[in-house]
Design goal:
The structure holds two protein chains of two kinds. By secondary structure, chain A is of the alpha/beta class. Chain A folds into two domains: 13-91 and 176-257, Rossmann fold; 102-173, no CATH class. Chain A has helices spanning 54-61, 84-90, 107-115, 132-144, 160-172, 190-203, 216-222, 240-245, 247-255; strands at 14-25, 28-39, 43-47, 69-74, 77-78, 92-94, 178-182, 208-212, 225-230, 233-238. In chain A, a hairpin with a 2-residue loop joins strand 1 and strand 2 (28-39). The N and C termini of chain A lie far apart (41 Å). By secondary structure, chain B is mostly helical. Chain B has a single domain (25-344), classed as ABC transporter involved in vitamin B12 uptake, BtuC (Orthogonal Bundle), CATH 1.10.3470. The chains are: A alpha/beta, B mainly alpha. Chains A and B meet through helix 2, helix 3 and helix 4 of A and helix 8 and helix 9 of B.
């Protein structure tokens, strides 16, 4: 992909708004009144110890679970509780912490399916070669994520690192405006983690990124804004350096390893 | 199925007609070989004046249509229907009633069966697609049982006797016409319809629509996050399968001159599933090959012993254990290996 083809978004405006978002699982308040803004074209990260409710928060935003209270807005429009396919049409895509691909289909086909929403609906009934935009998108993503040599391999036969990259690529295929990445570097080697970090950095400006990440070093170097959660609640937010210095964060997060 | 259908992904639309033929997927070559064999068979049967085997082969092709509809659900979408005979029987009854009571018109009977299959498929699909996995299978089974028992207990539909005295029909194609009473003509017609169904369905399953079904089969949970409404896709393929089964069923009374509630019974649904698994799931050719094989087997073994179901059962178990992808699947795997070796040493 050339720099000229990258869409740039006006940085700063609120692309994804989360307001007082809550969900109960049988009396357990998994996410309690969490709210923040993810600025357009920036990288916002959600961190917190295990069980803080980060993945549940992602499930609420991406339509996998309905919230019991609160609101989610995309560019100001209320999208709370909408089904994932409608959210994708509205411009929000996500990746998964546990690799969630079509393992028995080729790598290129994984991407082509994910890019098919770029086509007009009736292209679903025409030969696949007519879906030129989807195919071009799939090829471009193969290239960008260094998977061109593996295009015909079944996704299930890729290495873990390659599958993690494909997971991000699949989420990008629909050209979303807001991308949720759930621990994209989970289980990656040190080198792969650094490469993936650079890749995520390159996405900012093109689109709005909301990131869950365990690698604190990566979070601090990548993020424009950090939201800290503990026990289902937001305990702090701000610029990486400010969050790191926050005593509440020190106590809840860095304190008790 | 992926290996059968995903070959044409590269160089989309860039190949000329000549190279397109050479790139024809192995599964389509198998279908062509099958067609040639069927025409050869028809020529021999015609030359020897053997109407019995032509009629038997026609029946096998009719049940192949039912098996193809099971394959759409099981092989391409991963949905096990244990009640596909509901739509087959519905098509047969609607066709019989139209031919007997309305007009002896082939086209009218087929159109009525298609409409009935589509409407029933929509209703059944909305009910069955509320649940997944084993529960989907059980609901389809239950729906077919309810329909079969209702027909069995309805005097106006002939109850347990079914409907008899369905007239033979003359089928017009513009200036030409053929008669269902003539075994060769009707065999060739049903063969033509089978080939058309195969071509149309194979096309659809290789188009993005069918590939989304493959994605649902591979990992249904991810599909909504890619912008697809999985429920709508599953409903669409369910209705499509119901229409295919109903059209196949509509041919039955034209061949046999009667319909009976057994056409809707579990034995018919179960046989269709066995046919698909023995022939090869997710290939569409497999159900046709499986149907011909099992029909021939039933006829041959049935002439020696009335316990031919034991033989069918043993074959089913052997094919599940040793040929996981069925006969056609195993054949395609061999062809694939050979063509790979051919590429390695050009």
């Amino acid at each position: 992909m050339t720099a000229a083809s990258l869409k740039t978004v006006a940085g700063g405006a609120c692309a994804l708004g989360v307001r007082d978002l809550s969900v109960n699982f049988g009396g357990l308040q998994a996410v309690a009144g969490v709210g923040f803004d993810a600025a357009a074209g920036r990288i916002t990260s959600v961190i917190g110890p295990n069980g803080a409710g980060k993945s549940t928060l992602f499930n609420l935003i991406s339509g996998a679970i309905r919230p019991t209270a609160g609101r989610v807005t995309l560019d100001g429009a209320d999208v709370t509780g909408q089904a994932p396919d409608r959210l994708l049409a509205a411009g929000l895509a996500r990746s998964f912490q546990i690799t969630n691909l079509f393992f028995e289909l080729p790598v290129l086909e994984n991407l082509r399916i994910a890019a098919q929403v770029l086509e007009r609906p009736w292209h679903a009934l025409r030969p696949v070669g007519h879906s030129r935009r989807a195919l071009a998108k799939a090829e471009a993503l193969l290239d960008r994520f260094g998977l061109s040599a593996k295009a015909r391999e079944l996704a299930g036969n890729l290495s873990h690192g390659e599958q993690r990259r494909l997971e991000i690529a699949v989420a990008l295929a629909a050209e979303p405006r807001v991308l949720l990445l759930d621990e994209p570097t989970q289980g990656m080697s040190h080198g792969d983690t650094a490469d993936t970090g650079a890749l995520i950095r390159s996405l900012a400006g093109e689109l709005t990124v909301l990131l869950i990440e365990h690698d604190i070093g990566l979070v601090m170097s990548l993020s424009d804004h950090v939201v800290v959660m503990a026990q289902g609640r937001k305990i702090a937010e701000g610029a990486p350096a400010a969050v790191r210095a926050d005593p509440a964060v020190q106590a809840a997060y860095f304190g008790h390893g | 199925m992926p290996e059968a259908t995903l070959r044409s992904l590269s160089d989309p639309g860039r190949a000329g007609p000549a190279s397109r033929l050479s790139r024809l997927a192995p599964v389509h070559w198998l279908a062509l070989a099958f067609l040639a064999a069927a025409l050869g068979f028809a020529a021999v049967a015609w030359a020897t004046g053997n109407g019995f085997y032509l009629r038997l082969a026609t029946e096998a092709l009719i049940f192949a249509g039912l098996a193809m509809s099971v394959d759409l659900l099981l092989g391409y979408t991963g949905l096990l229907s244990l009640g596909q005979a509901l739509y087959f029987g519905l098509g047969a009854y609607v066709s019989a009633l139209v031919l007997r009571d309305v007009a002896p018109s082939f086209w009218l009977a087929m159109a009525a069966a298609l409409l009935a299959g589509g409407v029933a498929g929509l209703i059944g699909g909305v009910i069955a697609n509320r649940v997944k996995g084993v529960y989907f299978a059980l609901i389809t089974f239950g729906l077919a049982q309810v329909a079969a028992k209702s027909v069995y207990n309805t005097r106006a539909l002939g109850a347990s006797d079914g409907l008899i005295g369905i007239p033979q029909v003359s089928i017009g194609f513009g200036p030409f016409s053929l008669d269902t009473a003539d075994p060769l003509s009707f065999f060739l017609l049903v063969l033509g319809l089978t080939v058309a169904a195969y071509a149309g369905l194979a096309y659809l399953m290789d188009a993005p629509f069918g590939r989304t079904l493959a994605a649902i089969r591979a990992n249904e949970k991810r599909v909504p996050f890619l912008g697809f409404n999985a429920w709508r896709y599953k409903l669409a393929v369910y209705v499509l399968a119901a229409c295919v089964a109903a059209l196949a069923g509509a041919l039955y009374p034209m061949l046999r001159g009667f319909v009976s509630p057994e056409l809707m019974f579990f034995e018919t649904s179960g046989n269709a599933v066995i046919t698909v698994i023995v022939g090869g799931v997710g290939t569409l050719v497999g159900p046709v090959v499986g149907s011909l094989l099992l029909t021939a087997l039933r006829s041959v073994v049935g002439s020696w012993t009335e316990h031919h179901l034991i033989v069918v059962g043993v074959i089913f178990m052997l094919s599940v254990i040793f040929l996981r992808k069925g006969l056609v699947g195993a054949l395609l795997a061999r062809l694939g290996r050979r063509s790979e070796q051919g590429r390695a040493t050009p």
